[in-house]
């Protein structure tokens, strides 16, 4: 027990050291993919009006969108603790949408919202829309609306580098597996792999700390998220096996504001056509080494 604790502490310390050495300012993971092209500058639509959307009117009056996001997911949604600035693929998606809806993306006010709190945040008007690895599914559609999808992820597993027993979800029997409360990966393990011991935290980064300190044996969530944690400490962590679900990422909007939802669908379609989507991907998630996929078809489902 003592040895494990000590080892854990040392691992955590080396994580910090490695992160500082390899990742530079802001702690973002190293680059493997295309050279970091400059982030696209999104042209703000002039004279754009969407008066039928209550959410849009509110944002227009205050002069900016308030967007929910993640702050601890490398390549996707990360907040620089020094500057308070958010960056990553989800953040770029949020920005291109804001520009298409006529509001300067530079003025967006980002708010970190954990997986379990997304629906409430949209329902009580705390945020106008949400962009943060948010899987579209029928249960959630009863509570919120979804623009998109704009990306297709899949559930995967992250383990310590020397782990040899866990190669896929079938190997999780009797193992301690960590995921975020309220997430689809958590729910899938609970339902399909009941012999695994599930541990839940608010965020995946806390799960990763627990993995590095030997408190859990695996972390499960979307491959796109796990790849970022593994890249931070490649000597300590690895993503194993194939992904075992489909997680289409959508932009969460208040349920019933279909005008806003359709405008977001149009915005995404236009940014996919004009190359901004790909530029944004290449400059963020593409740095993980995974080349830009074809974005999934937008699901413009009928008004509720
Ligand atoms: N995409 C999954 C979900 O929406 C996992 C990632 C997350 O928790 O944001 O639940």
UniProtKB/TrEMBL annotation:
Residues 1-21 form the signal peptide. Residues 64-288 form the Solute-binding protein family 3/N-terminal domain. One of its GO terms (biological process) is amino acid transport. SMART domains: PBPb. One of its GO terms (cellular component) is extracellular region. The keyword Ribosomal protein does not apply. CDD domains: PBP2_GluB. InterPro entries: Bact_solute-bind_prot3 (IPR051455), Solute-binding_3/MltF_N (IPR001638). Keywords: Signal, Transport. Gene3D superfamilies: Periplasmic binding protein-like II. Belongs to the bacterial solute-binding protein 3 family. This is Glutamate transport system substrate-binding protein.
